[in-house]
TrEMBL record:
One of its GO terms (molecular function) is ornithine cyclodeaminase activity. Pfam families: OCD_Mu_crystall (PF02423). It comes from Streptomyces spectabilis. This is 2,3-diaminopropionate biosynthesis protein SbnB. Its EC number is 4.3.1.12. Transmembrane segments: none annotated. One of its GO terms (biological process) is siderophore biosynthetic process.
Amino acid sequence: MLILGHGAVEGLLAGRERELIDLVADAYTAHDEGRTSLPHSVFLRFPDRPKDRIIGLPAYLGASAAADGEQGGEDVAGMKWIASFPDNVASGLQRASAAILLNSLKNGHPEALIEASMISARRTAASAALGARLLLGDRRPTGVTLVGCGVINREVLRFLAADRPELTDLTLYDSDPERARCFARDNARLLPGVKVRRRDRLDEALADHDLVSFATTAATPHTGLAACPPSAVVLHVSLRDLTVPAILGAHNVVDDVDHVCRERTSVHLAEQETGGRDFIEAGVGALLRGRAVLRPAPGRPLVFSPFGLGVLDLALARFVHDKARRCGIGTVVSDFLPARAL
């Protein structure tokens, strides 16, 4: 059993944003081609703690070419177990913590335990940056609005900065103004020479730029998109910010229709209200493979709502695991499993 802690994982992922976007794109393509197995994630909730939850994401991802053109890793199977305890933030702790267990496909034995908070955040951000690529097309906005100034939007900013060097303006909004101030102080450097605005009202923040990323802890919809510029691209990473009318008034792209229409996401609520899914225009994999084409109407926003698929976690976990093995990084526990059959 190979055990990789946070520091090792962070080092193996550092500076590889564009590679990771390509790995995520490969995983979406594999999913659209049927080279994955992806059961619904499991939500563990607690009767007396409605804000807290732990989610299990089992998945299988077939082999694919790596981002650098070399052969990718072998088929991989495993589970991400991720806890979200929002009140941690007030105590100076990370809201989310995670681990990934990888299993051998030769004998089913567990073969790696990987600290996964960085993997989870960066696969989410890579997915958002890929969504921006697909939905923006040839457009080159020079600014982005971040709604929610936590870990996920920090990583979204990191990946957008790597993939869209034309970005020079940043607007920040958070329901806690102090969090926005701290974010500006600690993370604005991710966009060299950036001009930063902090807005006290959400509508003002939405009006600033054609590109918006929502990464909040909202449990219920709280905003529409009327304040956005025409044809804005909205990365709806946190999934529950937008009202049903906002979803129905937009061009909607998702990662997986069956997965995102669950757990009272904004897309799920829109499905419940309309009785169908016709308002969803495409999946990411279909766009990447050319099976779907977006033809946005002028003035209508484009919304990307990624539920967060376990195959993305496996893509990055496989990348980290393989590089750690080659570099001799991590702790090997040789007696983790029984020596012989019981």
